[in-house]
Amino acid sequence: MVGKLDAAVESHEIGDIDNYLMRLLMGSRNNPELPQPINVMTFVDHVEKDIEGFRQQYDGLSEFAHPNWAGISLLYARPDSVNRWTDFGANIRGTDNPRLIGVVNLSVALAMFERSYGKIADLMPGFISLCERRLVQSDGDPIA
């Protein structure tokens, strides 16, 4: 979103921001009457351009979040190769590693949010002015 706002303010053109916001807010794969959603991987790839390594972090978190080896077996199973069995249970391997991964990624996510929020706040006056000028041009009446 920061990139879209920045481009609009720099070019003095609103461009496709309305379409973009509608896809963000109302996008649906199941309802043909609504706009097509923006795929989350599109966002991940855009962030990777600004923050190198973001895709790797996203992929790592996805391993824990989805029902695959890291999200199930790594957290809830401990293989015993001597006895040739696997013990299952909540936090069977301990909670330090998953907790550290969660805390580090939450910290990074909050820093990214703060950075983006600050940039959007800086761009808003120029974007509002641009929207107001467009409104005046479209109906011919000055804004009250």
Strand content: 5-15%
What's the total helix number? 6
Major sheet: size, sense and barrel closure? 2 strands, antiparallel
List the strand order in the largest sheet: 1-2
Number of strands: 2
**Compute the gyration radius: what is it?**
23 Å
Structural class: mainly alpha
Helix content: 55-70%
In sequence order, what are the helices and strands, one letter per element?
A: HHHHHEEH
The average pLDDT score comes to: 84
Low-confidence blocks of residues: none
Cα distance spanning the termini? 28 Å
User: What sort of overall outline do the alpha carbons produce when their principal axes are compared?
Assistant: elongated
Descriptive account of the structure:
The protein has helices at about 1-10, 15-25, 40-50, 55-65, 70-75, 95-140, and strands at about 75-80, 85-90. With about 140 residues, the chain is mostly helical. It has a domain at about 50-95. Strands 1-2 form a two-stranded antiparallel ribbon. The chain is elongated, with a radius of gyration of 23 Å. The protein starts with a helix and ends in a 5-residue tail after the last helix. The mean pLDDT is about 85.
